[in-house]
Design brief:
Layout (H helix, E strand, L loop, with lengths): L2 H22 L1 H15 L6 H13 L2 H8 L5 H30 L6 E4 L25 H13 L4 E4 L8 H10 L4 E6 L6 H10 L2 E6 L4 H8 L3 H14 L5 E6 L4 H4 L2 H10 L3 E6 L15 H14 L6 E4 L17 E4 L5 E2 L6 E2 L8 H5 L2 H9 L18 H9 L2 E2 L8 H27 L1
Parallel strand pairs: 1-2, 1-8, 2-3, 3-4, 4-5, 5-6, 6-7
Antiparallel strand pairs: 8-9, 10-11
Helix pairs in contact: 1-2, 1-5, 2-3, 7-8, 15-16
Amino acid sequence: MNFSSLQSSVQKFGMNQALKYLEKDPETNIPKLMNLVDKVMPEGWYGSQRKLIREQIDEKGIWYDYILKLYDLDAGVRQTVFKNFIFNASLNGSTKQEELSEKYNCNIPWAVLLDPTSACNLHCTGCWAAEYGHQLNLSLDDIDSIIRQGKELGTYMYIYTGGEPLTRKKDVIKICEMHPDCAFLSFTNGTLIDEEFCQDMLRVKNFVPAISLEGFETANDSRRGDGCYNSVKRAMELLKKHKLPFGISTCYTSVNYKDIASDEFFDLMIDAGALFCWFFHYMPVGNGAVKELLPTPEQRAYVYHQIRKFRSEKPIFTMDFQNDAQYVGGCIAGGRRYLHINAKGDVEPCVFIHYSNCSIHNTTLLDALRSPLFQAYHDNQPFNENMLRPCPMLENAGRIQELVKQSKAVNTDYESPEDVDHLLEKTAPYAKNWKPMADKLWDEQKK
């Protein structure tokens, strides 16, 4: 056994002992465990996060309450998620990712997003995933191969997009069984979550759904279809009943931005039992994109302020995909923190960037990360020093064109291919309008 393997084994043993210690009396032992963590963690590792957790524990603030709420979950699921997410994906995995990134001079992702299928049981207005069509699938062997390759790179976090991943429930659960050391999260419309699936989740212990919810009933169903809101409520009730972890995914637009950034919506999610919410800015991807759904600068700023305000008031973990780049150093696509593999196997730098120059069917995951498009991302990130303008497509006019044309990548929309210059026609006005507001907010942050 080499030193790295020995170190990993010691860390894993320590993690298991810590979890057992916490299970006995979490309220008493959490502060003691943090003292131990501070002693054994390498200097600089997750320092700001540990400081925040320490402050919340000392103050008995909302995030301390949030930590205790995790102990309302099913014990087996909680322990497995902790081990796979904290140790495998974050601590042990990150070390290997950094080593290999330096060795190969390319990005190595913390997470791989993949579409098991392009099929979906809904037809949501403005859905970027619909641009792939509805007949494509990654086979069980394809998904297994991607994960095996990913683990060789230190990647233990896998996130399903689509399509609707749960149209392939049996394969989703089978993969969880095949890779019990990985953490799996799935974006889902929630309509296919039932009692049987909850029992499967309890059995495999390493699957967490993020249910799409676009606000309250009127706004949600106007985009997703009549009855979807009530289907989501039923799914959340089932998950809460079985003490299963889940979160919410919401896309904010010019229509629903006030709803999803309201006290009432946050309270709805918390009362339903959601532990986290991913906020996504609407992206005008594809020839059929509805440009009118793009938030105005004032609307985006409103969401920005509301989410940050609620982080000190509401016990739910939130990630604002477009406005939180400062916490991760800018754009995380192109394998810097994640990449996307669509249902045909095209390896894309981002779930919203439908361009590629390689397929997982004829190249390895590592070679895809070293391909021209991914290398262009690696060599050019961050795309802006203003972390409120992180994206090469949405906020930096012309950058995505440079990357695509430089790498000779092709569009992966097989229903209606979109030329990158056509994409620019939609995003350039947005970038121009957003810049003054972004600069103002960024200057305020730096004071």
